[in-house]
Amino acid sequence: MSLTGGNRNDVTQLLPLLDRVRPVRGRVGRPRRRPDRLLADRGYDHDKYRRLLWRRGIKPVIARRGTPHGSGLGAQRYVVERTIGLLHWFRRLRIRWEIRDDIHEAFLLLAAALICWRRLARTLLGPLRPCLRGRGR
């Protein structure tokens, strides 16, 4: 994760972000490898960055600017958009009020932990909720 100013173009952080991605674990005994594709929206459609991605062995799956919508990337991008929507439930993260970036990152990590906890509690305790409600009466 990296924080930049609000008026910076996102594509400038593409390569530093890729450098921070750890190799994906495979089966035991198999070598680790980096992801082989990058899904991005039209804001990342620059020939310079496409070439740099190909050199790294990463296939860019990026919609071209000026083409009609419906490229088929929506199904994969929905995961990212849903995550951003979940983070925006936390009012403090909708607009960055903190001057110090470490405080903002701490709130971001706390929100991510709460989202994961709520999802796990709903999944694991969902079938047990009627039993838990009956206790104590």
From TrEMBL:
<protein>
    <recommendedName>
        <fullName>Transposase IS4-like domain-containing protein</fullName>
    </recommendedName>
</protein>
<dbReference type="InterPro" id="IPR002559">
    <property type="entry name" value="Transposase_11"/>
</dbReference>
<dbReference type="Pfam" id="PF01609">
    <property type="entry name" value="DDE_Tnp_1"/>
</dbReference>
<feature type="domain" description="Transposase IS4-like">
    <location>
        <begin position="2"/>
        <end position="115"/>
    </location>
</feature>
